Amino acid sequence: MDRLDEISAFAAVADARSFTQAARRLGVSGAQVSKLVARLEDRLGARLLNRTTRDVSLTDTGRAYLERARVLLEDFETLEDSVREESGPSGLLRISAPVSFGSKQLDPALLDFAAAYPSVSLEVFYADRMVNLVDEGFDVAIRIGRLPDSSLIARRLAPVTMIACASPAYLQKHGAPQSPSDLAAHEAIIDLNTAEPNLWSFAQEGECMDVRVHGRLRFAGAESCLAAAERGLGVARSPDFIAADRLREGRLTPLLCGFEPEVIAVHAVYPHSRHLAAKVRVFVDFLAERFAGEPEWRKGWGEPPWAARRGALPVG
Fold this sequence. Notes:
316 residues; alpha/beta; Arc Repressor Mutant, subunit A; D-Maltodextrin-Binding Protein, domain 2; three-stranded antiparallel beta sheet; 10 helices
């Protein structure tokens, strides 16, 4: 087992390019990781890592050794998982998700999952940043939007529609925009968490319409943008799962309903592995079933003209 610990420590350092990050991922001290890697190099009689004060990199020997070591580690994990699966999924599942989706939509699903799988422990972190699953030791991340190319596996869970909206008081005072181009004359409330905060996308009859908007209020979060819109301070644009309650209760009014809004998607992403751990597989399957079909948050605030054509919209 000591040799396996050495190999695991070496692989963690190689992935993270840091002894500190590797130690955090493995749940041990930095000194212990350094000791394990040094012991492995001494036993092999070869330097596997180049170390500087700022970086850690693989030597040619280390790169070749790591390729073979990954196979060994995956085989060992497969062996252990095959035994665990006889009694059902178990172990610690670490999850990352955006703040708003987590609190509004994921929390109830997580509690139901915890009740259904009592042998699985959950550590859930909500943050509006893209975590590095491998370096930070996460098993699964929930991500919304168009995903960049990566080695991660992604499973689409549900569509998300970007909705422009404003308060009845704002519309009474300033009027409602009749086309996306009219937004240039309105005060936009900008969400800095989006990829291009000042560019809002719409479409009509399949033709894309990108509109550049401007405003004095800029928040790193859709919830704050909607709160400002509810106060009558401008037009906001938000994922429908965040705006749903305000739209349903009439505190905000959806705008430009004759134009197809941008549609993105919620995904569950996880690292590629020859053998997917049972706890990850059942969790992703659980979420896929939970969010299948028409999203719950879309219900109860009317069917704009583009809703009937939803099946033809891109899903990201």
